[in-house]
UniProtKB/TrEMBL annotation:
Pfam families: Acetyltransf_1 (PF00583). It comes from the Bacteria. InterPro entries: Acyl_CoA_acyltransferase, GNAT_dom. It comes from Arthrobacter bambusae. This is GNAT superfamily N-acetyltransferase.
């Protein structure tokens, strides 16, 4: 049994910790947070090992592409956050198109695209701590607006962990984000301005 009463400490991600957290089984070890970075055939034609190498390369190219949460010195959660242009699949999504771009002209928009929380640490405050750290990370690196695309479980009651990797409306609302669109049923676009 894991001790979920220990304090959660967050900070910029390091590659070795991300690699350990994602492991060798499960969706994180297949996706490597590249779903939104690779659209269409690029996704299908890129095997998991290459996706892993792409994420690893992001750690050498500039600010870390996400933040980590730790408990007792162990990485227990990850949140991907980068400038929205790093995610072509988001930029082309129906969810974002429905939200429109009004008021974003000239703004540096960063996207919170994905959460990974280790089994045994879910529903214990890790996602909230990660979102707070992701917002701080984005603003520290020039974001004017941080954007998320969470699920509304009240409209999608059968949504399970595999559907909630983008977070929930409640999580983003608690962090101060405002809803700008709910045009796609069960999905929202939420934004937080500096």
């Amino acid at each position: 049994m894991r001790n979920t009463s220990e304090a959660i400490i967050t900070g910029p991600a390091s590659w070795p910790d991300v690699e350990r957290l994602f492991g060798v089984r499960g969706e994180p070890s297949r996706c490597w947070c590249r779903w939104f970075a690779l659209a269409g055939q690029d996704w299908k034609n890129t095997p998991p090992k290459a996706r892993k190498e792409q994420l690893k390369a992001k750690f050498d190219d500039g600010p870390e592409p996400g933040v980590l949460a730790f408990r007792g010195g162990e990485a227990v959660g990850w949140c991907a956050v980068e400038p929205r242009q790093c995610y072509p699949r988001i930029e082309r999504s129906e969810v974002l198109k429905a939200a429109g771009t009004g008021g974003l002209e000239g703004a540096e928009v960063w996207s919170v695209s994905c959460f990974v929380v280790a089994p045994g640490h879910r529903r214990s405050g890790v996602a909230g701590a990660l979102l707070e750290a992701a917002v701080g990370h984005a603003f520290a690196h020039g974001a004017d607006i941080v954007e998320g695309y969470p699920v509304d479980p009240s409209l999608r009651p059968k949504a399970g962990p595999a559907d909630l990797y983008q977070g929930t409306v409640k999580l983003f609302g608690a962090a101060g984000f405002s809803t700008v669109s709910t045009a796609v049923p069960g999905r929202a676009v939420m934004r937080l301005r500096r």
